Amino acid sequence: MTHLESEICSRLLLAHYGQIVSTVGSQLIRTGAQPLRLIATDTGTPIDQVKKALCVLIHHNFGAYRLHKRGHVEYEAQGPQVLRLLRFPRYIYCAKTLYGDTGELIVEELLQNGKMHMSSALRRVTERLHEASTDSESVELGEAGETFVRLVQTHFLHKCGLVPEAAAAPGARPPPAPTLLTDEKDMYTLPDLSSLAQGKRRRRGSGDGEQPQAKRSRQQPAEHEPPPDDGVYWQVNFERFHQHFRDQAIVAAVGSKLDQTSSEIVRTMLRMSEVTTSSSSSHTQPLSSNEIFRAFPAGYNLSKQVLDQYLTLLSDDPMEFVGKTGDSGGGMFVISILSR
Q: Is 40 helix (H, G, I), strand (E, B) or coil?
């Protein structure tokens, strides 16, 4: 990382998380991985404050830890992830464009908090929607939950790594640094929403001020109970957002080179393979002409014959946005990504 990028990271951390986090983060970006005591010594910061700063960095996905071969734990700051702070407004606007106000608030909450329980995120979003509403209609957790589910199904959100539940021997010391396990098959598995839905939010105007003091006292301890999905955290999948931005650029390039129908065909192909194609793949999964025809928006009234002509035109174009890989199913087509 260049000196200028390091300086930008330092200023971003200072603006968003304060002086101590900025000092610790800047030190680790400059020097690389360091143990806790060395960080405290080099920055002149008390160890307890260094610990808090490291917690902030790790919780917001700007830092990481690893076990050194000598047995101690080293911490590092990840500069490229810190620079993503500059893109936060774009991530939020993208979520609003795709999933409306509810999607915008969900992504905003997760970006601001780094990692959250699904139940906590839904409750916070529901409260914000209720506060912003201008009528007396109630807002349910289920409404926000449906949008959260759609964000997970399209891989814009995913689970964080979990600490494995291993049976420790009596009296055994815990490992100096836990190892988080990430199962790709489980990253997008959703919990039972019925356990998260707590019923409708109260209507505007029925605030806590109308409740008796004794009733409020009885309800207070419930606020400190663990959430129903305790231990399961979610975060924004930045690579998925970058993949969406890349797909938008490809669609715009095709529309500029050819026409709107061609760009809509490419958009349909990208949408069909958005959750099955890795962000590092050189091309999308092969799709047959018949599959593309069935998924194409009905509003265009495009016949199968005309679609095949467009696919032939796209595959023969010198820019090679679309490539033909086979003849089964009316022809198998892919979209080239890394070569564009």
A: helix
What are the pLDDT digits (tens) for 59-70? 999 999 988 888
What rounded mean pLDDT belongs to the chain? 83
Specify whether the CB–CB gap between 6 and 30 falls below 8 A: yes
Tokens of 184: 């790709």
Tell me the pLDDT tens digit for each residue of 36-66.
Answer: 999 999 999 999 999 999 999 999 999 999 8
Q: At CB < 8 A and 24+ separation, what contacts does 268-274 make?
A: 268/292, 268/295, 268/296, 268/297, 269/322, 269/333, 269/335, 270/335, 271/295, 273/335, 274/154, 274/155, 274/243, 274/244, 274/247
8 Å CB contact between 16 and 83: no
- Cα–Cα nearest to 156, from 218, 99, 87, 82: 99
pTM: 0.83
Could you tell me which of 129, 109, 107 has the C-alpha nearest to residue 120?
109
Backbone phi, then psi, for 42, in 5-degree steps? -70, -30
